[in-house]
Specification:
Blueprint: E1 4-7, H1 11-23, E2 30-33, E3 36-38, E4 42-47, E5 64-71, H2 72-75, E6 84-88, H3 93-98, H4 101-105, E7 111-115, H5 129-132
Parallel strand pairs: 1-2, 3-5, 6-7
Antiparallel strand pairs: 4-5
Length: 138
């Protein structure tokens, strides 16, 4: 089993991650998955061509494409020993956490590192919503 799992839905960014893993001789340690992570399985529209600024597309965005989306629980059900999550989803944190109740509740999980940039407003979320989600996560 690989020590790390990385999810990246934007093809250009996914290719860069693949190359980074190859250059650092980590292929046997990293499971790269070309999908987005959210509340449930399906598809969603992402921006393309904005480098690190790519995000879930909203009505005014151009340069978009449909990408597959999975819940973190469904995608990592076979990874019982997850001890760290690093989340950087450009305002989509609440959606990701909604699909990660099992992994968040797993006693093996020791830490969650979540980057936020207050861009959840585009998806109808207040900036601190993800941090206030407790209940089943504690």
């Amino acid at each position: 089993m690989n020590a790390y799992v990385s999810f990246e839905p934007v093809p250009a960014t996914f290719a860069a991650i693949q190359e980074n893993v190859r250059l650092n001789d980590l292929s046997g340690h990293v499971d790269l998955r070309p999908v987005a992570v959210g509340a449930a399985q399906g598809t969603m529209r992402m921006t393309m061509g904005y480098d690190t600024g790519n995000h879930v597309a909203t009505a005014g965005d151009d340069q978009t494409a449909d990408v597959p989306i999975v819940s973190l629980d469904d995608a990592t059900g076979d990874i019982a020993s997850t001890c760290l999550l690093k989340i950087d989803v450009e305002g989509f944190e609440t959606e990701l956490l909604s699909g990660a109740r099992g992994i968040i509740g797993n006693p093996m999980l020791l830490a969650v590192l979540m980057e936020t940039n207050q861009s959840g407003d585009a998806y109808g979320e207040r900036g601190d919503t993800a941090h206030q989600q407790r209940g089943p996560f504690v």
